[in-house]
Design a protein that fits this description.
homodimer, Molybdenum Cofactor Biosythetic Enzyme, Chain A, Maf protein, five-stranded mixed beta sheet, globular
């Protein structure tokens, strides 16, 4: 089995608030092809320590991957130090500078002179192109070892790693297949999920099962290992099927998709449209739904009705209802959903009104009280939930609860039709 | 200045889902007393690599702190390996075993024999008692270096570190104070910021300055060190002041606040209200503004006008304008802002219409083309920008650009009045 080390470079990663997350993603990818991560280092913009770290890593492990420190400024030292650590020169590549200048021109800017630094690469290294940023990556074979130098931002290093490094490592790692799958479960607690499915997954000894709680949902991670790809896939399929059967409609995502993707897919497949009326979530639901490419085919409109005036004027909520029941009430949630659906002329509308805190709670309606409204062509209804957490979590969980409610309604309508 | 290294021990910390967080807390504590963390390592239950890591760390840095691997089971190797790394013996301490037996008795259990391992400590080490668990910590002076061995769980290692290690280190570190501050800059690139301010910050040798790019803004991190707290504060104030003077209005945040906080604060201070009309950002701007507690005093309403119908019906955009110029155009952005302001009856309205991709781009209007509209009581205007990145980044950057535009307009209005 090949061993790997990951070096995260950047002084900001040695502060009390920032942490290296690149290594988690890289570890996941390496594990999939049967390569184990044996050590991780975080080192600052510190030439002596970085050089030593790279040297030691290449002595100990087969594969060394570094992230960060490839920017154009003085404190970006990876290029120079990495070259020195493996005893090679940096060479200037004309075509890289041309690329950089072109890139800046497209953004309507002149390339600052310091960016020229990014046109230097280690002698003999494969250059890894970066469509999402100005720093190219590098891959060098040195002795028996493989040294990969990636930029820091995930959006830059992930495609680079997947396209250029992973296929190479897969060939080197040989016939080990670790297949992963993630299910997401809504509306059930972590221990309830474990209690329900432990008797199932414990029978699968070649599958590593872990259950994690993530903001507003439970993630079930499955990792099946085999020296046959087909077998790994088949085992995973079988176990996932049994878990889904056991947990039923609560499993909203069968392959790790996000709630907004699943809702989007359901709307698309059923050729239905939706609009959202948000009070306490303030645009979060709209933002999540429209984060999915192609959302314009089913998402028509949203109204962020934060002020009562907006609920009344734009969503046609009767002022007397707000007066009588309060803005955070089942009645207002329903009126918002109904008004939204009529305004946008969609098949469905959902609405949220609640108290996200930290202020605004009362004995009767504590912080976390949220009403979700729903309207379709046949009915308007709502339900109340009390969500735990701070403002951020309450808002997130309210958005998740509303989307899950819509999902369950679409599924019901599907079955009835 | 004393340098420290942190070693997190445990194979679970080398998986794709777990991350070492002990080091963040420890770094915070060390930084406060002027000790810098120079390197962090995560190593598994791997004797060879752990021994090498400890040896190297003690060569490089004044203080080495390890967390984890002190449990009673086979894969808890820290005790043995640490002793070997510094060339000392493990000695059995009778009183520790007695303590352990007593502890188990209190829990109503017999001490399992394997727990005896936890009664062995490194020869000559100070033993750090653990009221919250069965593993004691250790502190050893070896040569000029200080080696601290802590258990993994935060509730065990944190009181241990605060009570026994911190006072010792504070004395060793002397009177050193490190004060931090972060500025955020919008609408300027990383290299342009560096080019502009390097001549300033380079004159401040006791301040560590680092410049980071973060999605849509530049962060300038300053850390001033002095043996007088007042002086550290004063130096930081002086340097930050000069940087702000140089970069001007582009510095949107003087103390690390987020764009949405700053915009909220400005609206609040000026007793103004705002509404947002979003097309391609789909609720993101509303979501960010309402993420700030108390947003209801200045944020009245949003409309997510995704479909053209919504732009026409809710925001009163003339269909002919959409027909003539397209939904992504200066004219529509302006009509959206104007319509939004009239609907919500606010002081300001901003709008966004653009192409977030991945599809929908054309030669004339490529993916990333975004128009930001603005309306107040005196004028309606707009501007065009082309934002780089994928769908996620384009949407985020569009929201940031719109909020920054609003911020600059509020500042202008302030000055004019």
């Amino acid at each position: 089995m090949l061993s790997a080390e990951i070096i995260a470079i950047g002084s900001e990663l040695l502060t009390p608030t920032k942490t290296d997350t690149n290594s988690l993603w890289l570890t996941g990818k390496l594990n999939e092809i049967g390569i184990e991560v044996k050590l991780k280092t975080v080192v600052g913009d510190d030439k002596m320590r970085l050089e030593e770290t790279i040297r030691d890593a290449l002595k100990r492990s087969d594969i060394v991957i570094s992230t960060g420190g490839l920017g154009p400024t003085e404190d970006d030292i990876t290029r120079t130090v990495a070259a020195r650590a493996i005893g090679r020169k940096l060479v200037y590549q004309d075509d890289l500078e041309t690329d950089l200048r072109e890139r800046f021109r497209k953004w309507g800017r002149e390339m600052p002179e310091i960016n020229k630094r990014q046109a230097f690469v280690i002698e003999g290294a494969d250059v890894l192109p970066n469509p999402n940023g100005s720093a190219v990556g590098m891959a060098v074979e040195t002795g028996e070892k493989f040294f990969v130098i990636l930029p820091g931002p995930p959006r830059e290093n992930q495609p680079m790693f997947e396209n250029f490094i992973l296929p190479k490592l897969r060939r080197a790692a040989g016939e080990i297949y670790v297949k992963r799958r993630m299910l997401r479960v809504g509306g059930v607690g972590e221990s309830a999920v474990d209690e329900a499915i432990a008797p199932i997954y414990k029978l699968y000894e070649t599958v590593e099962t872990s259950i994690l709680f993530n903001k507003s949902e439970i993630e079930i991670h499955l990792a099946a290992q085999s020296n046959s790809e087909t077998e790994a896939d088949a085992i995973l399929e079988e176990l996932a099927g049994k878990i889904i059967e056991k947990l039923g409609v609560a499993v909203f995502s069968r392959n790790g998709e996000l709630m907004e993707e699943i809702v989007g897919k359901l709307l698309c497949e059923n050729k239905k449209t939706v609009a959202v009326a948000e009070s306490c979530t303030g645009g979060l639901i709209g933002g999540r739904l429209t984060d999915i490419p192609g959302a314009s085919t089913y998402f028509m409109q949203g109204v962020i009705a934060y002020a009562n005036e907006a609920k009344i004027k734009t969503l046609n909520v009767a002022p007397e209802i707000i007066e009588k029941y309060g803005a955070v009430s089942a009645e207002v949630a329903e009126a918002m959903a109904k008004g939204m659906r009529e305004l946008a002329n969609t098949d469905y509308a959902i609405s949220v009104t609640g108290i996200a805190g930290p202020d605004g709670g009362s004995e009767e309606k504590p912080v976390g009280t949220v009403f979700i409204g729903y309207a379709d062509d046949a009915q308007t209804k709502s339900f109340k939930t009390i969500l735990p957490g701070d403002r951020y979590l309450i808002r997130w969980r309210a958005s998740q609860t509303a989307l899950d409610y819509l999902r369950r309604q679409i599924l019901k309508t599907q079955t009835t039709e």
